């Protein structure tokens, strides 16, 4: 499959299966797609830059894209930076220790 095809499928998957990114004021951008290796790089930004549970969203994207899109073997997701990015500390370590998040599986 071409890089354009993988990029289109990745964009469609994120738009259709992880609408919380956009619903909560965030956005995503496909930064790089290598059709030879299956490597995909995605940046999330907007409200995601300041969200304490963005690491859980990142983890979900990195785990699910390779299983959902044929030709994708490795996904790297990063928070988009920039002068207007309000970055908050990650809450994932605290959440992982909380009993109510023991079996947490994001609904996306």
UniProtKB/TrEMBL annotation:
Gene3D superfamilies given in the database record: Fe-S cluster assembly (FSCA)
SUPFAM superfamilies the record matches: Fe-S cluster assembly (FSCA) domain-like
Specify the NIF system FeS cluster assembly NifU C-terminal domain's residue ranges: 19-75
Recorded protein name is: NifU family protein
Biological source species: Halocatena marina
Lineage at the top is: Archaea, Methanobacteriati, Methanobacteriota, Stenosarchaea group, Halobacteria
């Amino acid at each position: 499959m071409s890089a354009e095809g993988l990029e289109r499928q990745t964009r469609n998957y994120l738009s259709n299966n992880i609408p919380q990114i956009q619903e909560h004021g965030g956005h995503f951008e496909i930064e790089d797609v290598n059709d030879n290796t299956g490597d995909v790089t995605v940046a999330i930004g907007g409200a995601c830059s300041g969200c304490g549970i963005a690491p859980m969203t990142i983890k979900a994207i990195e785990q699910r894209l390779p299983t959902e899109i044929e030709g994708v073997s490795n996904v790297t997701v990063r928070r988009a930076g920039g002068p207007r990015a309000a970055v908050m500390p990650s809450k994932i370590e605290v959440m992982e220790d909380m009993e109510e998040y023991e079996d947490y599986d994001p609904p996306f």
